[in-house]
Amino acid sequence: MCCRKLSTFRSKPPLIADIFSRQNPLNPKPISTISLECRIIEEEPTNTSTNRHYGTYVSLLNHPNPEISCFYLKGFSQISKEVAGKALHALCIKGLVNLTVFYSNTLINMYSKFGHIGFSRYLFDKMPERNDASWNNMMSGFVRAGFYRESMRFFNEMRDFGVKASGIAVASLVTACERSEWMLIEGVQVHGFIVKVGLLSDVFIGTSLVHLYGTYGLAADAMKVFQEMSNKNVVSWTALMVAYMDSGEPSTVMNIYQQMRSEGLSCNDNTMSSVISSCASLEDALLGYQVLGHVIKYGLKTNVSVANSLISMFGCFGSMREACYVFSGMDEHDMISWNSMIAAYIRNGLCKESLRCFSWMRHVHKEINSTTLSAMLAGCGSVDNLKWGRGIHSLVMKFGWNSNVCASNTLITMYSDAGKCEDAELVFQGMEEKDMISWNSMMACYAHDGNCLDALKLLAIMFYLRRAANYITFTSALAACSDSEFVTEGKTLHALVIRNGLHENMIVGNALVTLYAKSGLMIEAKKVFQTMPNRDGVTWNALIGGLADSEESDEAVKAFKLMREEGVSTGYITISNVLGACLAPNDLLEHGMPIHAFIVLTGFQYDEYVQNSLITMYAKCGDLNSSNNLFDGLTYRNASAWNAIMAANAHHGHVEEALKFLLKMRRAGVDVDQFSFSECLAATAKLAILEEGQQLHGLAIKLGCDSSPFVANATMDMYGKCGEMDDVLRIIPRSVDRSRLSWNILMSSFARHGFFGKAKESFREMINLGVKPDHVTFVSLLSACSHGGFVEEGLAYYDSMIKEFGIPAKIGHCVCIIDLLGRSGRFAEAETFIKEMPVSPTDLVWRSLLAACKTHGNLELGRKAVENLLRLDPSDDSAYVLYSNICATTGKWEDVENVRRQMGSNKIKKKPACSWVKSKNKLSSFGMGDQSHPQTSQINAKLEELKKMITEAGHVPDTSYALQDTDEEQKEHNLWNHSERLALAYGLINSSEGSTLKIFKNLRVCGDCHSVYKLASGILGRKIILRDPYRFHNFSGGQCSCSDFW
């Protein structure tokens, strides 16, 4: 016994640098020998007699096994069992026959077929004479055994010996590059060699190249090769179809099929299987039935492979009756038939039927395989069915299929769908062998779980190990980065997509449009969209959804119209997205109602998702009555419908109604979910109704919903907006466990309560912990700087947001900067900023500037601001009121009267000031000079008492806040009629001494009232919290948390 050492099967660790430094594998290199797995077979000379030889000859001819009886004519080519092959080889060594070139070639082929590539190589090296078939068999043997690098070296050796490259050898070499899943560059080089030596006309080589590019997801390159082929057969056409099918472009497959038929070619079973699978992917039942007619026409209805594909197709259509009909009509059922039937049941949610089919399969067919269990596992990817999934996982272990790649891949997907990422990770890490689907499934799991960094790490490991990546790999990785926090990583992936030639793949393109749209980068999203060679409904939905989220209503509706003009079918997602773009009252007549008419015309009014979107749209556009009417007309109300109507009422400030809907929802037997609590908590936060918010928090804890990130963050926001900063700090997660949204809420709460330093400290801590800020983070931060008077710091934050963190400025950031500069009286800089803003100024910009002009009495700039504001929204009452106040403050009483006359002629009413306070479970609200409250006499008496106390303390009324042209005494009287003073008096009367008093106002607090509150807190020794639309004023000991800057 002797052995030869294999030194070439273990390649060096793959490095990214190899891509640039790798030598051409077609350059001749000496080929190494291969170690033998067992004893070496030596050919020994023999002196057997002719009679003995003849006797053996006769006995072989009469052998009952046809594989052996045809040995003299076909050599080892028909041997199907290794034992028989080795026995025949032993007889040859003992003198049965001389191992001629023909016998040696078939023997080499036999050993490679049984996986003994070492034996094959040894025999090849010992051959005294070789022909083309010898080289071809050896080359095919390397490929069959999976020694793809060795096949490349063997090809170089073949050229060194002067053997002309045959079509079979080159086709085998291309197949090696295809099957390796990481030899694309080598495959491209082989392609160049093929063109150079003129072998592209060989139909086998051309077809193998189509397979190569299809395997790597480069369907466009496969098409180029196909078009350059002078000879094509049905296998070539089928290979091209498979390439596009694997690239997720079933519509292109159907186009190729039509072209193939127009050229008069007949289809085989593989062709029809690909076409049927494409119909299933397109979910086009009419097309599927047309193809079924072709199946019958071609006489393939009895073909098992085609029938299996039909079962799967009908399963995708939800036509289980037809699937059962095909199955029962089959003359024979193979393993795939049973598996297809089980998968069809699972796909349609018929778990019990799938279990019956599984039981019947074990009784009739007797066998199951890993694919059977994989099909069963596919139906267990939910919390409800996970227990069955774990049971089937046990069966996988019992049958020893835990090492089966297909079964393990399905387990990863099952645990991922059930939200058990840790279990999926354990399965993945325990796999001895992983294929592309394994890596893609695990990456999709990370993406589904929001673990972007883990997904990117996995992709980096794939590149390091030189594992092949296809369009699904990049689609999952891009999905993991669909958040503004990871936009830089997303752009890097975009570059890798281009480098790998996948930028023309439609599914990857869809993922890129979604990535940029969700990150708010609509310019980039549009660029990707426009450069895509093919677009489907998903592409348009991603674009329209992004435009809607970015509040580009006109652009979203325009895209919707273009989509219809291009003949792309619209679905419920499209309708829901475009309805989401209707946000304001002027959108209702222009866009919302025409879209509603389209919905009725196309029959989408019965779709649950569309119904809920309509409820939301009408509410956002100011028509709550239509929202309520739509809800009342629903025959079936799911949780989403209840949540939509609660959000609609909360949006209009009808908090009590929203909470009533929550009670009705529970009485109707519909489970309250995390979104129900989020909507109701947001409603209580909007009006700062603490008690109801606390009750909701308690109910969420009782129902186990408080652990939901949505509910937890909504609860924190509610406490922050209700003035309970201590509760925010009590329930917020630890710093290391906080999400970005939790950090944003904390900073916003600090800013709202006047703790500007703490807001900035939180930002620094967030950055130090590696949490990336988003545009909301900087809105909170800039707002804190604006209300705190930190002008230079605010400008520095704005600059770092764009340059350091790569976050584009949105209208919210620009409003904060205008407010920041305006509050400090830097109007020249504010005007310059408005001119250079990266987004068009909206009403928010001009209103902020107008408010600053009112504070500083800048009449000229105020006039310019109000002109722009009224140009955008002529019905805006705040524009008239603020400008009127500027005129009043500067003594321009004639202008004040002109403004009021304009309001009257335009039928515009000023939003009345209102303050409210809750005492003993009763909410009492007050308007300007309100005398309707039952305790009015007590309130007036308390006001007189307060007036006397603060006057004695040295208070001098600031009558500039009394915006009427009257004498000073009347102005002072009017100041004491302000709603916040009436609420203060009521609160003092109806609260216990020493308790904290909370008062709320719908408009900005008056400056003189602010002074009164400060003095009252010091004189009475009471802590008073006043909340206006902008912030909390915490009065204590004669001071305010805003430091008189608000």
UniProtKB/TrEMBL annotation:
Xref: PROSITE patterns: PPR (PS51375)
DYW domain location: 954-1046
Pfam families, A to Z: DYW_deaminase, E_motif, PPR, PPR_2
One GO cellular component, as annotated: mitochondrion
Keywords for the protein's UniProt record, in alphabetical order: Repeat
Domain of life: Eukaryota
Matching InterPro entries: DYW_dom, E_motif, PPR_At4g14850-like_plant, PPR_rpt, TPR-like_helical_dom_sf
Similarity annotation: Belongs to the PPR family. PCMP-H subfamily. Belongs to the PPR family. PCMP-E subfamily.
PANTHER family linked to this entry: OS05G0305300 PROTEIN, OS07G0578800 PROTEIN-RELATED
NCBIfam families on file: PPR (TIGR00756)
Protein name: DYW domain-containing protein
Organism: Dovyalis caffra
Top-level taxonomy: Eukaryota, Viridiplantae, Streptophyta, Embryophyta, Tracheophyta
